[in-house]
Design brief:
By secondary structure, the protein is an alpha/beta fold. The chain contains 13 helices and 16 strands. The structure holds pyridoxal-5'-phosphate (PLP).
């Protein structure tokens, strides 16, 4: 038998359900791909030009491991203006993509034997990231009600253990579109303060909200001495998923630790991409607004088409750009999305991969151009109607 060198925590990791399905047909032009968290339009030209100009100007060397000074300055101006705050610049780091910020934050706090709480339903990469630290993970799930998805903080309190060292919350939420209200954020922050639990607040969808300009944020609540790391990035608000650039706002006393860990993981984000990120911050408000309008219309199309299907229950998302509908009586979300892919050439993600209790659900991204989105939705409905007698009667 081959002696394997994998740590048990790493050996135990499983491919998530999104890629598990998508990798079978990725790049196939026949597929309407609504499985990933991005639209089908390329990043705006003025942002692409900024990257090209930086390259041509020779911006190809190592830079500060917490990110270019000019980018951190631009982030301070952006965040100060957006949230009406005066951020200590030592709190800002650009280690690479948003996902890398989450990975480093989790590694900072957790080790084998620790316990962590993840608010679900949740994007599956978060679970893998937490599990890779060696910590044991408990899901606390939002619940669906007439008023939409909601989180009961008593469920969090009930899940706490003496070794709970971190709590992960993503608002606006992928996949449910839940937006955590500011009062509840304040209450959760108080709990984390009392217990000295690292709160990782994933706010990568901070500008993808439909009833206001920006979602309620821990940025306006967390003090420098709080156990909070807010993680965000450029992927979703400016449609820059492939650029792999994001930022964290963390306690200033850890600035050097962020520099060290950033050096270990990626030695900062790609340098000419950082120049494009500055341009997005300084000139990208129209882009953010235009994309928001496009996604808002996408959300209407989802509600309209899925609303015609009695077997589907949809809670309207307040933020992010996903629908997470329930198909009443569904027994295998994986078999369902595989069937939709095979018979209708539409790519969606199975509910099971977003944490326990989601087997009747699937996720689709509505950031796509409207014609493709509508066609994809019509085909999903057609599939459900054709297979209606195969669902459990509920
Ligand atoms: C909840 C959540 N957090 C983090 C990320 C990662 O963002 P990035 O691609 O900027 O690393 C995503 C991407 O889909 C996400 O949905």
């Amino acid at each position: 038998m081959v002696m394997d060198f994998l740590r048990p925590e790493i050996a135990a990791l499983e491919q998530n359900g999104i890629t598990r399905v998508a990798l079978t047909r990725i790049g196939d032009p026949k597929v309407i791909a609504l499985w990933f968290g991005e639209g089908d339009a390329v990043t705006d030209e003025f942002i692409r030009v900024a990257a090209k100009e930086a390259l041509d100007a020779g911006d190809t060397f190592y830079t500060h491991t917490r990110g270019k000074q000019a980018l951190r300055d631009a982030l301070k101006r952006y965040l100060d203006a957006l949230y009406g705050i005066d951020l200590d610049p030592d709190r800002i780091t650009v280690p690479g993509a948003t996902m890398l910020g989450i990975t480093i934050a989790a590694q900072m706090a957790l080790t084998t034997g620790d316990h962590a709480i993840i608010v679900g339903p949740v994007w599956p990469n978060i679970e893998s990231t937490y599990q890779a630290t060696g910590a044991e993970v408990t899901y606390v799930s939002q619940r669906r009600s007439e008023a939409g998805w909601q989180l009961d903080l008593d469920d969090i309190r009930a899940a706490l253990r003496p070794r709970t060292r971190s709590l992960f919350v993503n608002s606006p939420c992928n996949p449910t579109g839940w937006v955590m209200p500011a009062e509840q954020q304040a209450e959760l922050l108080e709990l984390c303060r009392e217990r000295n639990i690292l709160l990782i607040a994933d706010e990568v969808y901070h500008r993808n909200v439909y009833d206001c300009d920006v979602a309620p944020s821990f940025m306006t609540l967390a003090r420098d001495d709080d156990p909070v790391i807010v993680v965000s990035g450029f992927s979703k608000a400016w449609a820059m998923t492939g650029w792999r650039v994001g930022w964290v706002v963390a306690p200033s006393r850890h600035a050097e630790t962020w520099a060290i860990l950033s050096e270990c993981f990626n030695t900062g984000a790609t340098v000419f991409v950082q120049q494009a990120a500055i341009t997005a911050l300084e000139r990208g408000e129209e882009t953010v607004a235009r994309l928001r309008d496009q996604y808002a219309r996408g959300r209407e199309i989802v509600t309209e088409v899925l609303g015609r299907c009695p077997r589907v229950e949809l809670t309207e998302p307040q933020g992010a750009f996903y629908a997470f509908p329930r198909v009443r009586g569904l027994t295998s979300s994986l078999a369902f999305v595989e069937g939709v892919l095979a018979e209708e050439d539409v790519g969606i993600a199975p509910g099971y991969t977003f944490g326990p209790g989601n087997e009747e659900h699937f996720r689709l991204c509505f950031a796509h151009s409207h014609e493709a989105l509508r066609e994809g939705l019509e085909r999903i409905v057609r599939y459900i109607e054709r297979h209606d007698n195969e669902f459990d009667s509920v």
